[in-house]
């Protein structure tokens, strides 16, 4: 068997369908072309190619109506037609197959399964082993000594290969019995009737006893169960039909010629061009080397050289020549090489720069020699592998300082915030960081999968760059950049700055063409160094406070555990969902209509289930409190202590400027935007965040900014008037919808109105509002209808936005920030759920995105005011609509006036921008000291 060549047969339609339904439906290129099926199909093909190393590969496809339809009109009648988005991707899949030079087999009147079966038997006759790759278990009947089937499990990339023994273990039958098994039990998917009244277990037992369908009917009188015997008698004709429908034909008019199927006879450059167009850079690394062809060039753009000229700056004379070139340049790109991805912990290893594309210069600063054992007879002794040439950083820094500080020289970078922080920590400030290629790509496509430099260079320039893992390795064998020889790093880092420079030249006209240049140059790029300042500043965190809180929570958890056991009448593992399921639904017999049975056989105890069970038994509230407390302790209290910098005694969060599709900033390590605020226990965590000795924390929060933006964009007269009157907008909404005077609005009315106000901004349906408010779905739907009656321009905004998103494929914020919705071009019913979700996001994006833009402008303006005024106050945090500053005692009064004035004037809306201000020694104990309500 081992000497037989291997043929892989791909079930084209089945694999495409499986990929389409398994991968995110909005997976698309930066141009909006949907690619989930194409990517999944290609990924699986390359996975099998890489793991199985076949000698031959071929693909089979269905072709039109088959003999089974003529035999039985209802065959596959319940199947939906191929979804429109998949139809649009089939041509791309065919392009992939053609580019890989793989033959395609089809036969008029037959399904792909029949073609596969025929090819498999012909391949066996020609001495080959066969592996069928499919998403359809029907092909299991083809398995024999020389044919196996690969099929994906729940996760598309998680595959299993079935042989004869695998089939016996799964079904208790041999592959040759599966046709008869389906003839008895039928197949809902293909609408094969089977025998009514005989299930899987009985069918298996009968086939195990008698061997085949024919023998079952031959021994029908021996079947002791009257019910099953009568069912089989009545279903004899249906069983015979089902058997004919389910049997794969192996004598289809196709002829296998193995030589054209030989794997690897493709033009790598042609495949690379197609992958570049589809933005499949990650798949290039998995593409096998073509057979019998010279190694292909890695650069696809014909007008550019294959690579640039990348040099190691190995002397101070060379450094002087580089400094002269940089000083006379109008712009240069730069990039740091370090020991860590954490900018606040990284040590500077080297610095790369280039004043033009096609070049790159690397200055080694802190490389180390890597010792290695000598020859065998000197085993145990160690010597330096080679002498490393580093230039002295203080000297290099002084020579570069005037150039990096020169405002007239534009600086380019990719993920420049990281570089700024590292260089500033090492004593070198960067002025006029004019272009960050990662931010530019993100602005043009907020959902881009190509934000990394390697991916971006691939999709935009056609350059296949060296991944960093080729230098530093992976897993346990991974090292850090300071142990890589400078000459090797010079080529890598030189390419980084070269590609960044080239990308600036490519991305600049695109930003201008899409009218994103003002947003890029006036908002996103000026914000970048401000975020770097905030990350470096960090915020004080009291470890002792957190330790005390952790112990308190530990004690409360122990007490809750005792109460839960007492309520349950026994001890059990509260964190075990299975044990909790048994207690709640079997022992205590709580209602099961609010839960769902899991595949494990137990009932779900998820948070939404427990919320619906509140009030049914005291144990429910106790379990919910236990869960909240345990999460707060592990996720926040204990985790935060570990993130306090031992030197600064502050935590330095990392702000991601490109982390969301709406334009909002995201925060990580720790995520300070997720510090709980809704519950009393959660709020106490904020008490650990405090100002330095003698200073204050000042929090300035936009009040209901998204609803104010909704009023501005929709121009709804009632909303505009309510904000101009300075009313509580939620109380006003309640009064309008419930048709009662303002003074008659109850707290419950206001709660429902508040939820509705924000639900409308997020495009929530009646069902969604019902889930959030406790109203019935009918009541919630009626409430929304009444809401739209009172605010008709809001309804108009919602409908117009959905229509606009579908027509042009994107929506915009007030400042022109775009978010694309390629999935809204889909009209297929099968995509209704996806389309509705996209419509909700489209409704929300102009609102939430505009709020994000406004606070970014406020941060830029406030930073300018603080610096021009010579203030020591500084911004520390941005948490959605709130800014947190650290303010010295003597500037407190000035900041209480300055901060809200700057924030409220950040953007001119047709309603006032209101800013609430609080001051305190820590983030928890902040008291309102005043607010500014200035009409812009």
What keywords describe this structure?
Taq DNA Polymerase, Chain T, domain 4, 35 helices, disordered C terminus, Nucleotidyltransferase, domain 5, single chain, Rossmann fold, six-stranded mixed beta sheet, 26 strands
Brief summary of the model shown:
The protein is α/β, with parallel strands linked by helices. 47% of the residues lie in helices and 13% in strands. Strands 3-2-1-4-5-6 form a six-stranded mixed sheet, sandwiched between helices. Strands 7-10-9-8-13-14 form a six-stranded mixed sheet.
Which secondary structure elements does this structure contain, and how are they paired or packed?
Layout: E1 6-11, H1 12-22, H2 36-52, E2 56-60, H3 67-71, H4 84-99, E3 104-105, H5 112-125, E4 129-134, E5 147-152, E6 159-162, H6 164-171, H7 178-185, H8 200-210, H9 213-218, H10 226-234, H11 236-246, H12 268-278, H13 281-284, E7 309-313, H14 316-327, E8 331-338, E9 348-354, E10 359-364, E11 371-373, E12 382-384, H15 393-405, E13 410-413, H16 416-425, E14 433-436, H17 437-444, H18 453-461, H19 469-472, H20 486-513, H21 517-537, E15 539-541, H22 543-568, H23 577-587, H24 607-612, H25 618-642, E16 650-651, E17 654-656, E18 666-668, H26 680-684, E19 689-690, E20 695-702, H27 705-714, H28 717-724, H29 729-738, H30 747-761, H31 766-773, H32 777-790, H33 792-808, E21 810-812, E22 818-820, H34 832-868, E23 874-879, E24 882-888, H35 892-904, E25 913-920, E26 927-934
Parallel strand pairs: 1-2, 1-4, 2-3, 4-5, 7-10, 8-13, 13-14
Antiparallel strand pairs: 5-6, 8-9, 9-10, 11-12, 15-16, 15-19, 17-18, 20-24, 20-25, 21-22, 23-24, 25-26
